[in-house]
Amino acid sequence: MTCRTAQDPDGEPDVDMADVAFTSMLEDSPEELYEQAPCGYLSTLMDGTIAKINCTLLEWLGLERPQVVGRMRFPDLLTIGGKLYHETHFAPTLQMEGEVSGVALDIKAAGGQRMPVLVTSKVKTSQSGEPMLIRTTVFDARDRRAYEKELLRSRQAAEEARRRAEADRDRLQEALAVLQQSLLPAQLPSVPGLEAAAHYHTASPDLLGGDFYDLFSLGTDRWAFFLGDVCGKGPQAAAVTSLTRYTLRAAALHDPDPVTVLNTLNTVLHQRYTSGDPRYCTAIFGTLHPGDGHVEVHLASGGHPSALVQRADGSADYLPTPGGMLIGVLPEVQFTAARTRLSSGDTLLAYTDGLTEARTGPKRELYGEDALRAFVAGRPPAGPQALISGLTGLIAGFGAGLDDDTALLALGVPALLPSSHPTPASEDLR
Asked: What is the pTM of this model?
């Protein structure tokens, strides 16, 4: 085999540098290779007494050869913890298997310092298989230990950061939940001759929703209710929600006509958000006039889904309010009013579009108004609380398909209990 050579500028061949390095290595004596190896070498008798040790390991230990050879055992080089591990694990494993590889230990280095090392030992046996001595290699693991410590610190720091982030998120969610509840009535008032129930589902605990509802007295046996949805989420939507609720309540006390109330809200929102970030909402506002076994309902809608009425006979249909425009977009708008009478066993349901716009099925199709009407018609007319309970279960079944907040408000007239008729026996007694 011919080695390649380089040419000097005069055309004469140069000696290959690889050949020079290889020749230099051949000139190293085995003794020098052993003594000055980049790792520690030692040989011990079977009882651990050190019989041979190289200069590299002696330098790490800060000891002279006469102090070690024939006077110390390998465990004497180790720290207290290393000695314990050597006696309980290292030595028994070596005795049973004849070899132990890559064990992390600490030796007592020069100056009393602990020096992390990786130790590999192998038993040398005679031709008859009898153990003769133990050869051990000791590798400097200081850089590796420093890396492991840094890695551990990084993991601990990341875990601490994760715990802090989770704690911050929990506090944020708690604060948002409190703020969200402040935008809703703590509980619905008790209205004579009327049963009321409500539910609010938050799609994300990390965001403030813009859905709202309320039921309040207008005095002299008259009541008002509203339910709506502000565009957007977050603090800005919460501010619009607060303004909307205050405006609806104040306007209703001045003039409770539903169309007039919504016009007042439109004027307030349009003037407040004419410039900059435009804001608007949809809403249903209505009044309730309880009578003898019934409640007269007068309502109007501004761009909101129509209310759904479940009748005592089991039928269900929407109370149409066509032409209702979004509230706050234009200075002049038109709202459509509607009226209905709730008799014994009837329930009116107002809801936000998070319910009908939920995604269902493998194709993630919109749930829709027809499905909601069918769901309500398929339930027995047992009153507002029973209807809200059923809808709450429906919402829970949507899972991730429900990606918007949903508010529900149900108002109904309790069903009359069946009147008791005298039995024939009682008639005979009379």
From this structure: 0.61
